[in-house]
Amino acid sequence: MKVGIRAFDPAAEPLYQVNQHFEEFIALVDTGALRTCVTQNVVDKLKLQRRGRIQVGNVHSHAWHWTYLFHVAIWPDSDSETISAAFGIGDEVEGIDVGDSRYYDVLLGMDILQRGSLSLNQDGTFELAFPG
Fold this sequence. Notes:
Layout: E1 2-7, E2 23-29, E3 37-38, H1 40-46, E4 50-57, E5 62-74, E6 87-88, E7 93-97, E8 106-108, H2 110-113, E9 117-120, E10 126-129
Parallel strand pairs: 2-8, 3-7
Antiparallel strand pairs: 1-2, 1-5, 3-8, 4-5, 5-6, 5-7, 9-10
């Protein structure tokens, strides 16, 4: 799915403003990830600044990852060039780096997904809805 990411800027206007600039990236919805993750492509394109490091574990191992602050916006999938509605997550997200992938640039983790409602269908489609 398509998502918007923008670097965290404490001086920026509130997220409910329509004129917010988010760069569009392809995201993978990952219910097994506790945190939202971004690839090096996102870090480089948005010039995200490292915030710190945390140790992250998975079924295979534990590794240290850089953390970054950014905002996430999700808008309806549409063929229109004009975005009719967007949901800005609000608070900044402290996400982690995930290396690189040729399939996606963002892993949407449970830190974002738990703020909304996710419905999975048997045909492989899904619906992600947020209040408001």
